[in-house]
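hey so i finally got around to running the thing on that chain from the lab meeting. sorry it took forever, my laptop kept dying and i had to restart like 3 times. anyway pasting the input first so we r on the same page abt which one it is
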Amino acid sequence: MNNMQQVAKYDVFEVTLTGKTEGNPFVDYTITGVFTGEREEVKAEGFYDGEGVYKVRFMPSYEGSYRYSITGSYRDDAEPVTGEFTVLSAKEGNHGPVQVADTYHFRYADKTPYYSVGTTCYVWELENDERIAETLKSLANTGFNKIRFCIFPKHYDYNFKEPRSYPYVGTPMDNSVLTEDNFWDYTKNPLENNTWDFTCFNPAHFRHIEWCIAELSKLGIQADLIMFHPYDRWGFSVMSKEQDDLYVKYIVARFSAFHNIWWSLANEYDLLQKKEEDWDRFGNILCEKDPYGHLRSIHNCIPFYDYTRPWITHCSIQRQDIYKTAELTNEWRDTYKKPVVIDEMAYEGDIPHFWGNITGQEMVRRFWECAMRGGYPGHGETYESEDRVLWWSHGGKLKGESWKRFRFLYDILCETPGLGLTSDAKFDYNGVIAMPQDETERANKTYFIYYYSFMQPSYKKFEFEDVYEVEVIDTWNMTIEKRGVFQGKFRIDLPGRPYMAIRFKKVK
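ok and heres what got predicted. didnt touch it at all, straight out
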């Protein structure tokens, strides 16, 4: 009988060992693994998981036979722990980690195109089991394939209760003193009201997040992990340089072997009490310690970080104009020469905050504006309710209208010849004209989408030398109407309402 361990390609292979418990194992000891196959050799740092347990994780990129060697000061025995395992073919739906492709777009490691259609639920994973299950059920019924969320709990409007767990060993403040009027006071000097050992992690907190990441993987959803954020009453946003670095290294050791990970250094970095060199240091730690090169970015409140920095793989953008955001996708692509992900373009909802009360129609319009310009849009939802559970932070059930229309957009993006779209901003007066990013497809004029946004023409006239199949797309009602084959001068009638598009496919 063959007792050789097995793991699927792009899945997590884990070596679990016991070791020292004296002192503080989170900082006093090391454990490192080297994983070797015919086509790759990967060095991965491990971590302490509590109660004398040490783990090293590895994500194989190829099929075949592998061997490993585990070393470190976690035990007195100087001899490395060795073993062998077999990597099988990838499971259905697992295409490996997402990577940047053709400068402005993404694809999985197996070269399958990836079109990001994201949402934000800041602390959904720190809710109770019932709401987490409800969130996962909601996600399964949407077209979302990326979700942004925090590792640390969040303190902000609608977020006054304590999370299910904390990342460190210690004692949190008594939140019974919090009110709508004084909650900002507890962000000023949070370490006065909490007692934590920032060198002693709470493994249960991170194990739970790992479970959530794995559940997202089953749904084909990328976990865009936010490392730091300013909305904090516990003190996690004001740790020392050494404590910050220890935290970054720990989460990279724990999470990087999961294929569906993106790293976001911060949500609204410019509101945190950190300097530019801190963010660059964190970015360089990711480059050094993450052997798989997962996507890396940082998110703004107002001023952009310098997305040209070499450690940044893509732009993660919050709108800077109340009304116009998606329309700037062309400009940002030209400036940074990287994929543009507009993770926050305002939220569908009805709360008083200016960023949280656009209509579902406007959210869908912004999604199409961004996507047709070769960018990748992000959703959020903030509807008031008696239980004060808002998707944007807690997850649960979606109440809006925009989310129902994103799978339709995703399916259309997947029909793009080559990989990804681009557009020519000089034609904006006539609507957005999207075309394939692929130079050959674009040169041969094989495919166009004219998107008319909030404009509502009753017809449009065209003239093409080549023969095209023409379809009229209603982006809100999610219909595609075939109009026939055309050449030369012709007219396409439209229903005279907004959110319409016309797609042209060259007849060969």
